[in-house]
Amino acid sequence: MQNNHIKNLSGIILATLFISTSGVLGKYIAMPSEVIVWFRSVFAMVILYVFCRFKKIDLTIQSRRHLFPFLMGGILMGAHWITYFYALKLSNVAIGMLSLYTFPVMIAFLEPLFLKIKFNPIHIVLGLLVLLGLYILAPDFDIKNTQVQGVLFGLLSALSYAIRILILKQYVQQYNGVMLMFYQTVIITVLLVPVLFFMDVSGFQEQLPYLLLLALLTTAIGHSLMVHSLQFFTASTASIISSVQPIFGIILAFIFLKEVPTWNTFIGGSLILATVVIESIRSRNR
Predict the structure, then answer these.
(1) Measured between alpha carbons, how far is 138 from 147 in angstroms, rounded to an integer?
(2) DSSP 3-state of 58
(3) DSSP per position, 152-215
(4) Of 61, 82, 220, 268, which has the fewest beta carbons less than 10 angstroms from its beta carbon?
């Protein structure tokens, strides 16, 4: 039993580390965000399909009623990735990742709408803490400021991710996590085909190694491991553990991109991550 727990814990920590590489790769790859996401999806789709066949994972969708939630999950995942890369390119890895990490508090606000549970007033306090953290990240709220734009795109990315989690959470017991991720990449790949005709893809050959890394390490392995881990942990526990994701991302950005966070980033980021931990512990104990 103890060995299984250590194995599952190692799996979610590894998933968090792999997913955190998206910050450095998304910032580094010199291509439009929509194009990056299309290549990320198509490569990940092939990798995941091969893995599913090798492991004999059933790709059958059990009910027609599941088609719409799967479609929405894919659309929201694509929106999450695109807006997240915009946040990274407009600001930096630290601000992009910390803005994204408001999603656990967004889930707390949205859960009553999706699951018909009673709203808890403590979420208002946590929401205000997040707003304060965001204000410290970007104190001069000028829409022309690229850091402010980065925060706003990060929040939009967080909202897309939060809704996707709430939609797919009810299916993780019925379907394999890799299978769910495969169908999301299929949907994103199909929907983003037009970007190949309207956007610049000329840097493809030079960026290919990084695109493959993004598809394999971050997407195919990282996200599949994370979805798989939801079988063994509550959403709150998963949030606590994965709250180190921005920290991993900031460290990687310092090593590979020489990005040094400001004091505002440290203080604002600490407030945001504190709300994640508070809400996660509170919801686990209720």
Answers:
(1) 6
(2) coil
(3) HHHHHHHHHHHHHHHHHGGGTTTS-HHHHHHHHHHHHHHHTTTHHHHS--TTHHHHHHHHHHII
(4) 61
How far CA 61 is from CA of 48, 183, 188, 258, in Å, comes to: 16, 10, 18, 45
Cα separation, 92 vs 198, in Å, equals 26
C-alpha to C-alpha distance for 94 and 8, rounded to whole angstroms: 28
Q: If you search the block for the tokens 């797919």, which residue do you land on?
A: 168
Q: Distance from CA of residue 34 to its chain's centroid?
A: 16
Neighbours of 2 (CB within 10 A): 6
Residue with tokens 């299984």: 4
Each of the 286 residues of the chain gets a pLDDT tens digit; together they read: 666 767 777 888 888 899 999 999 999 999 999 999 999 999 999 999 999 999 999 999 999 999 999 999 999 999 999 999 999 999 999 999 999 988 878 887 888 887 677 777 777 888 888 888 888 887 777 788 898 999 999 999 999 999 998 888 778 778 888 899 899 999 999 999 999 999 999 888 899 999 999 999 998 888 778 777 767 776 656 766 777 889 899 999 999 999 998 888 989 889 888 887 777 676 555 5
Q: Which two tokens stand for residue 286?
A: 């209720």
Q: Which residues neighbour 113 within 8 Å (Cβ) at sequence distance 6 or greater?
A: none
57, HSE (Cβ side, Cα atoms, 13 Å) = 20
- Number of residues assigned to the chain: 286
- State the greatest distance between any 2 C-alpha atoms of the chain, in Å, as a whole number: 54
pTM score = 0.88
